[in-house]
Amino acid sequence: MPQLNKLRSALAARSGEGATTPSAARLRAALTVFFALDGFVFAGWVVRIPAIKHQIGAGTSALGLALLGVSAGAVITMTLTGRLCRRFGSHAVTVVCSVLLALSVSLPAQARSASALGLVLLLFGAAYGGMNVAMNSAAVDLVAALRRPVMPGFHAAFSLGGMAGAGLGGLVAGGLSPSAHLLLLAGTGLLVTAAAGPVLLRERRAAEPPVARPAPGPGAPGPADGGRAGAGARRTVILFGVIALCTAYGEGALAEWGALHLAQDLHAAPGPAAAGYALFALAMAVGRFCGTTLLERLGQTRTLVAGGATAAVGMLFGALAPTVPLALAGFVLAGLGLANIFPVAVGRAGEVAGPSGVATASTLGYGGMLLGPPVIGFLADWFSLPLALTTVTLLAAVAAVLGHGARHAAHTGG
């Protein structure tokens, strides 16, 4: 990985500890802004789903099928983003995808049917998936170069951005139409990208050579394993990827169905309904800011198990509580439980297979986040939305069990 090695050498040569160099600080700050922007724009969209559902007159199954457009667009893009990052660099791809995300978030409010909504969500999902893969790739490289566990900070910024986006959505839900609100999000996204994008691109040119590093494929050996990763290591990476998928499923489900559950099943007003995801995102951010301390005190395995169990109990309240305050409390508990499972699972995969393990586990995790909402939609149509949301409880419990069973996997490679 000549690109990463040169970055490490440059940082070490300048200060002996990359976290203190001005270049590293600017790069870290710019990446943090993009993580926050990603969460802000996505949350701004999801809190307006009830209004857009009413606008197009769709049932839960039709809406679930339309929401599948986000998943399909993201999955298609994720399979291509690695090649784009190899050719143009993860920083450049992050900036381009951020522009596309900002432009595409305004489109759902223009749809007048479920099929039209699904088509525009393909574009939105493509931009969202590409941005997530690219900015996480950039962040993984920076974390490795700095040799400091700063990844939870990036994910905390995503959660804070989500909280801000959902909070703003709650404030304007009663006064702004979905079209006006999403146009406001688009303008904000473009302005933030114009401000932070040049920093990201400039620091890339200063720290990285023009020749892109080869990106390992899923399950391929990376530097962490010295090229010796075999079938056992690949199975271990998949295991941690499944843990990430189980928990990201819950995050995606709450993002796109939490507000509708509060409004439709508990008859919450637009403001409190939007506040559900804001509180969930705040709990995720708080949990991630405390993640380093938690890991130091409990260790990785106990953090996985405790987080999965906490999320399972919290989501059971969130889905089945008879009142809005109890449901909101459940959302908070679920957010605290889910907060650090994804970063820990991805990190453990990296211990086994290096960057290739990180990439595979991250892709599986984001797949869970994107596939959860349409699955919830179909289950809600067949049964009920509260019952469909209890699948989040089930998968969080599965993640806790898998986390305990995988307690030696990162060290044994099997």
Which structural category fits the helices and strands? Answer: mainly alpha
Question: How many H/I helical runs?
Answer: 15
Name the CATH homologous superfamily of the largest domain: MFS general substrate transporter like domains
What is the N-to-C succession of helices and strands?
HHHHHHHHHHHHHHH
Membrane topology: Multi-pass membrane protein
GO molecular function: transmembrane transporter activity
Domain Major facilitator superfamily (MFS) profile: 24-408
Subcellular location: Cell membrane
Annotate the secondary structure layout.
Layout: H1 2-15, H2 22-46, H3 49-56, H4 60-88, H5 90-104, H6 114-146, H7 151-172, H8 178-207, H9 231-264, H10 270-289, H11 291-320, H12 324-338, H13 341-382, H14 385-405, H15 409-412
Helix pairs in contact: 1-6, 2-5, 2-6, 2-7, 2-8, 4-5, 4-6, 4-13, 5-6, 5-8, 6-13, 7-10, 9-10, 9-12, 9-13, 9-14, 10-12, 11-12, 11-13, 11-14, 13-14
